[in-house]
Amino acid sequence: MKTADIEKIREAGLITDEQRRKILRSMPRRAFTLIELLVVIAIIAILAALLLPVLSSAKAKARQTACMNNLRQLGTAMRIYVDEAGVYPGCYSWTPEVYAVWPVRLLDYAGKSRAVFQCPAAPSDAAWDLQANPTLGARNADGISDPLGIGSHSRFSIGFNDWGLDLQHNPQLGLGGDINGGSFKGLVSEGMVVGPSEMIVLGDSRSDASLDANIDPTEMDQWPSSRHRGRADIVFADAHVESPKRRDLTDPAADNPWRRRWNNDNESHDEIVWAVDWEQETKLGD
After folding, report:
1. pLDDT digits (tens, 9 = 90+) for 173-204
2. Which has the closest alpha carbon to 74: 234, 192, 222?
3. Which candidate, 285, 246, 252, 284, places its Cα nearest to that of 268?
4. 25 CB burial (10 A radius; 0-12, 13-18, 19+)
5. Would you call the peptide bond into 96 cis, given omega within 30 degrees of 0 as the criterion?
6. Least reliable range by pLDDT among 48-52, 74-78, 122-126, 280-284
């Protein structure tokens, strides 16, 4: 018996409304056919395929925004540090072993928050956090063991522009590489930076546990990261943040305007040359 038949019987006065409701409740409900289920599943799959890229893109953008905010805070901390000290903090102590000094020297100026020393899009084990990052631990310049020390094999996601385009250049081109050891060239004063708004200070580094606390455009293993859809977030000496393509940051072409932004004299130094395997660059982890 169909529902329409039940309604006709009720309208004829042969059953009451209550009897009609009981009959309808007792009637078996029609189930979905296999084809109908497959159609529903197909529609859900299509909607998911359309929505997932949008959600993924939104999530990536949110992480990049958080990264840029962290770098902006670090840029401000660097600005205050330099105002007080008159010099940039330098990058590494090499005696008695590799130990990144710039994060330690900026920590107080960043509100003692180690969380801002991290790109949110980087792996969690690149955080400045003992619980998340088992690669931390190194001896500082005084030979004192620091469990949170960032050593040569510590994973880290933000790097310092230590040597600019050339480790060997004299005077040095970056913001101060080593604070001791054979490559020490002295600290870089505020006055040595010709164009603060054009001078790269910090940026996304490749968190692969190979000198991750610095960035260098001429050495592939020390390149900035490209984890923001091919781009690296960068903060400058005046604390503003940009997000250029990694290809632009590392391109050795003489007409590349980014060359001079690595150097404290704001010169492109076309005499400095290096080679880039662009096919390898696209495959390089970030």
Report:
1. 999 999 999 999 999 999 999 999 999 999 99
2. 234
3. 252
4. exposed
5. yes
6. 48-52
